[in-house]
Structures are given as structure tokens and as C-alpha cells.
Design brief:
The chain is mainly α and 315 residues long. It has one domain: Rhopdopsin 7-helix transmembrane proteins, CATH 1.20.1070. It has 10 helices and 3 strands, in the order E-H-H-E-H-H-H-E-H-H-H-H-H. Helix 2 crosses helix 9, helix 3 runs antiparallel to helix 8 and helix 8 runs antiparallel to helix 9. It starts with 8 loop residues before the first strand and ends with a helix.
Amino acid sequence: MTNSSLVSEFIILGLSTHPELETMIFILFLVIYTVALIGNLIIFLLSILDSGLNTPMYFFLGFLSFLDICCTSATVPKMLSGYITKSKVISYYGCVAQLFLFTWPMGIELLLLTVMAYDRYIAIRNPLRYATIINRKVCINIAIFITFLGFLNSMTHTYCTFRLPYCGDNKINHFFCEIMPLLKLACGDTYINEIVLFTADFIFGICCFGLTGISYVFIISTILKIRSAEGKRKAFSTCASHIIIVLMGYGAVIFTYIRPRSSLSLEKDKIVSALYAVITPSLNPIIYSLRNKEVKDAFKRTIKSLLLHKIKNMT
């Protein structure tokens, strides 16, 4: 990489070039990041510690929370530190690492949302066989497989992006090292990159979204056959949260990447990137889990257990 590049560092311009807005942006993103970190950490720990959440659905929710922590932590702390130190410089290899560490969990998350839709389909369509079809071993194997696919996706994007020479402008018009603004700075031909990018995002974006949509067609048709009104309400309530996250996640990714190059607008892309990189991960615990009765009960049990343990040690 160093032989093909004359740029040793990049300058990340951030969400806004207006200094008077920096304090407001810093406070806003600090709050959002704190909410995302605490909320997702609670869900992740509960899915591990509480035996009442030892089901495939909560295994995947815990995994989703872990990925959200990784996504936000790959981008937001560096941006916040830039506002504190007044230095928006990131080293060449720091930019490489940031791009890799962001795209890896992001790719896994798109695959995981598809898996979660299939999980809900099996749970509603075949409730008696659900525990046999989607057991703990299957969940772990799925997690390992999609993690490997996400790694390949991230490695491909990172290699293709930084195989290009960067020999001129080093100002990234974004709040982290994203693929599209980096390609804008490259001195070489980006045709191959655009093919790789479109192919990967077609697979991870449109195909996954399509499979998720097909799963929900079958899910809704199955729910409509349920005779009990309470059963229908409960089934729809379980799926509604997932549908909201799917639309937010896939919609933002498809809008950002799967468009003609002539229609690209980095200013708009920064806002959309903030949606799927920062805001959506902070909303996931609220939409998905923290309003769920089983999660609330698990949280109360865990707090009670920790308090009793502490009191026992004190006495």
C-alpha cells in the first residue's frame, strides 16, 4: 500500500464544516453513542447471563447488539476525539483499520437480519418443531458462517479501496473513512472498485432484503390464518420491531451504495451514513428489546441477583 500511495494521512472533515455547529454535533453524537453503547451492552449481557433468554431469538438479538457496539465504536469515538483535540487527522493505516472494522460488522448485520426473519418464520410457521430446527448448535454455526462472509466482504472492500493510489487531495468529506468519499480522492481508475462495490451490495443489500421480504410474505400469510385475535396481535408485535429495523437498515445501505455514480452526493450520504452507522444501532435496543416484557423481567432478575450477591458478600 505504501508503495502505491503518496498520502500518509487523511483529514476527516466531519458532518459539518461550520465551526459554530461542532459543539452541538459533539453533544448530540456523544449522547447517541452513550445510549447505543449502554443499551446494546445490556441486551448483549442479558442474552448471555440470563437463562430465561436462552432461546434462538435472543441469541440473535444479543449478537445484533454486539455488532451494533462494534459498528458505532469503529467510527464515533474517533470523530468525538477530533472535536475535543481539534485535530481531524487520521493516519493512512488508521483509515484502513477504520474502514475494515466498520464494514465487517455492518456486513454481518445485514446477513443477520435475514437470518432473524427466517427464524421468525420458523417460529410462527412450525412452533412445535422450532426448537428442533433452530437449536443452539445451529445458531452458533450460523453466527460463525455469516461472520466469515462478513470478513470476506470487509477484506475485499478494504483491499480494493486501498490498492488505489492516493496522491492528491487527502480531505475526506465524511465523518469517518467510508468507501465512497475515499474513491472520490483516489488518483487511479475506480471502475473495478465500482463493480466490486455494486456486486457486494447487491448481494448483501438487495438479495438479503429480498429474502427477508419473502420470509415476511409467508409470515404474514401464516399470521392471518391464526384464529385467536390475541395470537395475531402477539405474532404481529414480535415481527413489527424487526420490520422497522430492516427498513431502516437496508433502506439506508441501498440508498448509499446502489445508485448511479452521477447521482452521488457526499453531503446527503453523510446524513444517511449517520442513520445506519450511529442512529439505528442506538434505536435497536429500544425498538427491539428494552420494551419487551421478557427482556424487562430478565433485567430485573439480573439486577436482583447482583444485589443479593453483593449483600451476601458484605455480610
